[in-house]
Amino acid sequence: VQLQASGGGLVQPGGSLRLSCAASGSIFSIRVMGWYRQAPGKQRELVAAITRGGSTNYADSVKGRFTISGDNAKNTVYLQMNSLEPEDTAVYYCNADIRTYSGGSFLYWGGGTLVTVSS
Question: How confident is the model at residue 86 (pLDDT cuts 50, 70, 90)?
């Protein structure tokens, strides 16, 4: 199983970016997919998560600005980020709670994608 994240980049304050994360491999089902971020010198923190049924959870700092969505058919999760602030600068990681065809259930992480908010 692999998770491939993309969509990061440099954006001015107030701008928008859309991150994508696609899971591939021997996937039977995905229970939850989420986005985390880690800023320099800080711990990794949850940004947003979405269950297979569509329930969402957001960090207080991004509520009203970020929207997480998923495409179950494509095993893909998206993070639409609007009204970006310099404080949003971080490496963003996706993860997924995946049940494989072998019967095991594991938490997988994708490689990070850098988001830089700066004028």
Answer: very high
Q: Residue 104 contacts by C-beta under 8 Å, 6 or more apart in sequence?
A: none
As a whole number of angstroms, the distance between CA 76 and CA 72 comes to 7
Q: Across the strands, what pairs with 19?
A: 79
Q: List the 66-71 sheet strands across, edge first.
A: 2-6, 17-24, 76-81, 66-71
63: Cβ–Cβ under 8 A, 6 or more apart, which residues? Answer: none
Q: How far is CA 111 from the centre of its chain?
A: 11
In sequence order, the β-bridge partners of residue 96 are: 33, 108
The C-alpha atoms of residue 32 and residue 54 are separated, in whole angstroms, by 9
Of 66, 26, 34, nearest in space to 50 by CA: 34
Quote the tokens at residue 22.
């696609």
pLDDT digits (tens, 9 = 90+) for 88-107: 999 999 999 999 988 788 99
